Structure formats: C-alpha cells, structure tokens
Amino acid sequence: MKVVLQAIIGSISIHIIYVVVMMLVGFIKTKNYKPDIENAWVKVGNLQNEVEFVSVTPPHFYVLSFLGVSVICGIVILSYEKLMS
How many CB atoms lie within 10 A of CB 63? Predict the structure, then answer.
C-alpha cells in the first residue's frame, strides 16, 4: 500500500509540475511577444476567411494519463527498492 500511495503522490507531482511549466512557458512567450505591425500590412491578402474549431481533450484522457504515470512511478519505485536491497 505504501508503494501505491507513493506512486499516486509522484503522479500528482509530475502533473502539477507539467501544468506549472506549461503556464510559465505561455506567460514568457506572451510577455516577450512583439508584433511586427509594419510588415503585417504586407500580408493583408493572406487573411483567413474560414473559422477553425479546435478539439478539446476528453476528460477520460486525464484519468488515463494519471493512472499511466502512477503505474510508471510504481514500477520505478519498486525497481529502486529492489536495486537498493
């Protein structure tokens, strides 16, 4: 039971780190973005005339991701314990 709890905590930690890093990358890209207004007028003919809908990740993907990372963390923890003993 101890390994299962450690694997779940490891999975939660990895997912939180991933989300925070993605938010930081987005923040840094947004802060450093400098639009090129002068050259934008040259490309006026290339404007889109269609709407593009983006698909949303289904919620079960996150559950499967959490379970998969938990299993991987459990395998790593068990392997580490066997190597050290």
Answer: 10
Sign of the CA dihedral running 76, 79, 83, 85: positive
Q: Which two tokens stand for residue 23?
A: 């938010």
What's phi and psi for 57, nearest 5 deg? -65, 130
Print pLDDT tens along the chain (85 aa): 899 999 999 999 999 999 999 999 999 999 999 888 877 777 666 666 777 777 788 889 989 999 999 999 999 999 999 999 8
State whether residue 53 is helix, strand or coil: coil
Q: How far apart are CA 6 and CA 72, in angstroms?
A: 11
| Nearest-angstrom CA–CA distance, 46 and 57 | 30
What is the C-alpha to C-alpha distance for residues 38 and 40, in angstroms, rounded to an integer?
A: 6
DSSP annotation of 50: S
